[in-house]
Amino acid sequence: MTDKVKVALDAMGGDNAPREIVKGAVEAVREDERIQVILIGKEALVQAELDRYEYDKERILVINADEVISNDEAPVMAIRQKKNSSIVVALNMVKKGEADAFVSAGSTGAILVGSQLVVGRIRGIERAPLAPLIPTMDGVSLLIDCGANVDARASHLVQFAKMGSLYMEHVIGIPEPKVAIVNIGAEEEKGNMLVKETYPLLKNCNEINFIGSIEARDIPYGKADVIVCEAFVGNVILKLYEGVAGVLVKQIKDGLMSTTVSKIGAALAKPALKKTLKALDASEYGGAPMLGLNGLVVKTHGSSNSTEVKNSIIQCALFKEQNINEKIKKKIILTDNE
Amino acid sequence: MTDKVKVALDAMGGDNAPREIVKGAVEAVREDERIQVILIGKEALVQAELDRYEYDKERILVINADEVISNDEAPVMAIRQKKNSSIVVALNMVKKGEADAFVSAGSTGAILVGSQLVVGRIRGIERAPLAPLIPTMDGVSLLIDCGANVDARASHLVQFAKMGSLYMEHVIGIPEPKVAIVNIGAEEEKGNMLVKETYPLLKNCNEINFIGSIEARDIPYGKADVIVCEAFVGNVILKLYEGVAGVLVKQIKDGLMSTTVSKIGAALAKPALKKTLKALDASEYGGAPMLGLNGLVVKTHGSSNSTEVKNSIIQCALFKEQNINEKIKKKIILTDNE
Q1: Element (H, E) at A166
Q2: Are B310 and B324 in contact, with CB atoms under 8 Å apart?
């Protein structure tokens, strides 16, 4: 079993835990033979869910963790006090090398804080960004950073650009990914103090394919593969994306249901529309990796279903196979110190 | 004619100038008898457009301005050098009190810079924010600031909150508008340095109805009437809004056109859909006011048609009638100095 990628999976995290989480684990080991999943959570509950399926008992293990960290708890306090929570138990496994990666649909705050406190950053990495994939007209882009540490410095953004570039090239499979910095205009002299300071550093960076500034308007069109920004701005982008799309789809659905004739039209158009909206769903690529840690932590949506969980687990195998953390150590930290 | 609200209108600005601009002027004076429009631009061109309509010659005047500032020009340079451009001529009229307001669909950069340089800020106002109305599920919200001056201080954001609140109450007609600050979480302790510093100031501000933080996800749902943020973040929100909506509508249209059956469905649903998308269009309320100036400057979309131009002109009448600048002087500057 030693050659398998060991993924610790938070069986208790997310709106659909444990049912969809366990189902995702079963689907992942069926689909990808490189993977072993270690489900962490209330054992009896998790085992009962697992017993609904036929599965290879050597490739799905269950480890008990009695406590659960909810979304309402203050993250730092929760990580410190709930030593036997699924999140803390799993992160300790990653720290000790008993797991290669950790996937969770649980509290974003607790995962961000816990990853830093328990797993820790790769030596030389100043901050560990959270980098979700967002859907675009062309496919997906990596939005880095959307984490909890705001007010970043220019040197942080440069590391984000390099780590994001490695991730998009080797995990998502985009050769020479286009890297851009979020700005309020296309010209180099535009921007706030942070962007003005970061821009020339990125421009002089040989390891990445820097294409300059990107205005927020162009993000959904897929004009860059790696979108670099400070975490406050990243959070605004990520959440507004969800909000605008949610409202627009709702309004359009209401519009389609507003008259008898439009209802007939909607029924006819439904399969085509469904396909379109599915194309705008990034979850088929997996969750949001937290990069620069001594291991991999992947945050999936709180509302994740089994497919998103499965894809997030498979993403971990690719991350390990591609030696992303070795690449980060070689390509980022060495070049930083030159 | 002295009791009329005099609106200087940039006949040369925007993608559809001068045709749609002139048409908007004609529609405005027909619809609202309080208004006199002064069209500024290449006289022969503008007059030729005007001659297509029956109009009251005392209520639409034309003033010649030979030069045009394009979107590609560096704003500061353009304002300094093109003294006879429609923008500079119009701003000088506002400064001298020959016009009460200026409406333009031209270069945002030139309008922002020119307004500060030529018209100037009300004494005591630290910055003049640009505050577009954005569509929500409920109606519209005012997003303040989306201007060119980034890296704001807490005291700037407090003035934005007060000015925005006055505008939404007296011009848009929302009693006790709900004011919120853009943040990455709902709790008071969340946020970057600027937000953490601004939050308690807004909380202690008696002149506004402060409801706390708003996450970007909730903006399209209309949870606040006045959305306060620093201009870099405001720009990102405004442009991402346009981008996501644009891509989503395009994808849905493509989806509807993808099969023969869905095409029939689309044809049936079209009127209902059109109505829905129209509801998500903020231009019926007018353009984006630039607040805190010795006069009013309104920036309308570069792609404005006559209806948006007309609504922006009528908005100026309401602004004048409601004495917004007097209210700003009394309610903001006096309370600031208490």
Answers
A1: helix A154-167
A2: no
**A238-260: b (≥16 Cβ within 10 Å) or e:** bbbbbbbbebbeebbeebbebbe
CB atoms within 10 A of CB B156: 21
Contacts of A72 in chain B (CB under 8 A): none
Interface pTM (ipTM) of the complex? 0.90
Confidence (pLDDT) at A272: 73
Q: Which helix (H) or strand (E) holds A133?
A: strand A133-135
Residue A137 to residue B250, Cβ atoms within 8 A: yes
Q: How far apart are CA A184 and CA A60, in angstroms?
A: 48
Kindly report the nearest CA distance between residue A73 and chain B, in angstroms. 12
CB contact under 8 A, B239 and A216: yes
Which chain B residue lies closest to A182 (C-alpha atoms)?
B236
Q: Quote the minimal CA–CA distance from B267 to chain A in Å.
A: 7
- Beta strands (DSSP E) in chain B are 5-10, 35-41, 60-64, 101-104, 133-135, 140-144, 178-183, 209-215, 226-228, 288-290, 296-299
* Share of residues in chain B with pLDDT > 70 (%): 96
Tell me which chain A residues have a C-beta less than 8 angstroms from the C-beta of B259. 271-272
Could you tell me how far CA A295 lies from the centroid of its own chain? Answer: 14
Minimal-distance CA residue of chain B relative to A152: B192
Best CA proximity match to A128, nearest among A141, A118, A138, A139: A118
Across-strand partners of A289? A298
For chains A and B, count residue pairs whose Cβ atoms are closer than 8 Å. Answer: 202
Sign of CA dihedral A24, A27, A32, A36: positive
Q: Which element (helix H / strand E) includes A36?
A: strand A35-41
- pLDDT of res. A1: 47
CA distance B56 to chain A (A): 41
Substitution target in A183, A248, A264 with the highest count of B β-carbons within 10 Å is A248
What are the per-10-residue average pLDDT scores of chain B (338 residues)? 86 95 97 96 97 95 96 93 97 96 95 95 95 90 92 96 96 96 86 95 96 95 97 95 84 80 79 70 80 95 93 94 92 65
Summarised one tens digit per residue, pLDDT across range A288-331 is 999 999 999 999 999 899 999 999 999 999 999 999 999 999 88
User: Tens digit of pLDDT for each residue in B127-175?
Assistant: 999 999 998 988 899 999 998 888 899 999 999 999 999 999 999 999 9
What φ, ψ does residue A41 adopt, rounded to 5°? 165, -165
Other Cβ atoms within 10 Å of B262 Cβ, number: 22
A215 to chain B, closest Cα gap in Å = 7
pLDDT at position B3 is 82
**C-beta atoms of B137 and A184 within 8 A:** no
CB contact under 8 A, A216 and B236: yes
Compute the average pLDDT of residues A117-136.
94
Question: Taking CB atoms and an 8 Å limit, are B259 and A272 in contact across chains?
Answer: yes
Rounded CA-CA distance B321/B82 in Å is 32
Residue-wise burial string across A175-192, b where 16 or more C-beta atoms lie within 10 A, e elsewhere: eebbbbbbbbeeeeebbb
Q: How far is A157 from chain B (nearest CA, A)?
A: 16
